[in-house]
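My convention is simple: the sequence line spells out the residues, with the fold written below as integer tokens. I include a record here:
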Amino acid sequence: MPIQSSTILFCKPIPNMNTENPDSTHPSSEIADTSTNPPSFTLPPEAKRLPAWRLWAPLLLQIGLIAAVPATAVYTFITGKTVVLQTAPVDPYDFLRGYYQVLRYDISDLTNLQKLPGWKNLPTEKTPCPPGIVCPKNTHNLKPQTSFYVILEAPKTATNPGRPQAWKPVRVSLENPANLPANQIAIKGKYDGWQMKYGLETYYMPEDEREKVNQEISEAQRKQRQSFLVEVKVDKTGHAVPVSLWVRDRNYRF
């Protein structure tokens, strides 16, 4: 009896499809877990180090700006010429209010400067006259924010050896005049739209000195208000710094 041939079939194993325990060789396991190991970021070599000048330059600039103001005052104090200014009469109660003293000078008065030669050369602007009001003929006033120079002249003779004399204003100039005689100096001022300012209007005085000056002024002005003298230093650019205050024959340094 002949033997019939038979066919044997071999089946390929089916991979494990259980998602709860995936095989480590499954392609999905090749995806890295970024939750525990975040990718690192590396700066390029040229950006790793910031140049030192970028850190120091702003700091040096700020220091320079802060030091510029006292440096200018020191320069004026050392190189400037000693000048004595006449103050306007003051009220002792207003003068010594708080820690700062406020002074006005003869050259702070607009009417005094208008009488000097050179005043008409300063820039002016026309002031409008409101309707219904009679305005003066001269409606041209000094333009606000105008800088100018007042030329001061030293007194010829000293009448009181124990007390200096005030320098006299002789003319006004828009520019800082050159080649002034030895007995003259130009002080720089500015019109702010309300008054003339020279950077000498406010002073700080220590408490112990302030009490002495307060008592001295009260004694000097028992009968009437009077003016005082302020000694300043003025450099060749016209910048001025205060030095001392004269009350009668006594001197108080700022």
Remarks:
- Residues 1-11, 22-32 have pLDDT under 50 and may be disordered.
